[in-house]
Amino acid sequence: MLKRIFIAIGILAAVCLGGFITYIIAYGTGEAAGYETGQDVGYSSGKQDGYDLGKEEGYNAGYTSGKADGYDEGMQAVLSQGYTLRDPTYNEAVAFLKEDKTNENEYIEDTYGVYVCSHFSRDVCNNAEEKGWRCAYVELRFPDTGHAIVAFNTTDRGLSYFEAITDELVRPVVGERYYKCIVPKVGYYLPPSYDDTIKDILVIW
Q1: pTM of the complete model
Q2: CA atoms within 13 A on the CB side of 138
Q3: Rounded to 5 degrees, what are φ and ψ at 89?
Q4: Alpha-carbon dihedral of residues 191, 197, 198, 200, nearest 10 degrees?
Q5: Do residues 129 and 83 touch, judged by C-beta distance below 8 A?
Q6: 10 Å Cβ neighbour count for 115?
Q7: Dihedral sign (CA 8, 11, 17, 18)
Q8: Which of 5-14, 86-95, 104-113 comes out lowest in average pLDDT?
Q9: Residue 17: its pLDDT value, please?
C-alpha cells in the first residue's frame, strides 16, 4: 500500500514538473514573440506618428516663412516699380496746380494742334500721378468741337474740375456755355466765336 502511495506521488510530481517546464517554455516563447511583435508595431506606429507630426510642423513653418518672404518681396516690387495713388483734398489739389508748371507752357495751335488743351491736360495728369495724386483727363464735347480739362475727386468737395491751361476752377454743366462755367481768377471771360455749349462731359481715370 505504501509503495503505491509513493508511486502516485512520483507520478504527480512528474506531471507537475512537466507542466511547469512546459509553462516556462511557453511563457518564454510568448514573451519573446510578444516583445518582437510589440516592438515592430510600436516602431511602425511611432515612425508614422513622428513623420506625420514632423511633416505638419515643417509644412506650417515653411508656409509661414514662405508667405512672409513672398509678401515682403511683392510689396517691395510694387513700391519700387508702381504707383500708389490717392485722392487729394481740395486744398491739396489747388496746391499741386500752383506748384505744377504746365500752365507756363506755350499754347501752339496748328492744323492738328502742336501743343493745345489736350496736351496741357495730359501733362497735368502725368505730373499729378508722379506726385501720388489721382487725376482725371476730362473731355468736354461741344456741338462742333471740344475741349480738354482735368479733374480731381477731392475727399472733401467731391469731383472738382480745373482748366489745365490756366489752373482755374471750372464748374461744367451740360447745356451751359463753357466760358460761363469757368471761375476766372481775374475779371471775366467773353463768349468765343464758336458755340461752346457743353453737350457731354467725359471723365477718364
Answers
A1: 0.61
A2: 24
A3: -75, 170
A4: -150
A5: yes
A6: 14
A7: negative
A8: 5-14
A9: 47
Q: What does the block give as the cell for 43?
A: 516602431
**Domain regions of the chain by residue span:** 1-82, 90-204
Q: Which phi and psi angles does 147 have, rounded to 5°?
A: -155, 150
Which cell goes with 60?
A: 506650417
Phi, psi of 152 (to 5 degrees): -125, 135
Helices (H), the chain: 2-81, 90-99, 117-130, 178-181
C-alpha cell at 125: 495728369
| Choices 3.30.1450, 3.30.460, 3.10.450, 3.30.2010: CATH for 90-204 | 3.30.460
| d(C-alpha 19, C-alpha 143), whole Å | 121
Task: Give how far the C-alpha of residue 131 lies from the chain's centroid of Cα atoms, to the nearest Å.
Answer: 22
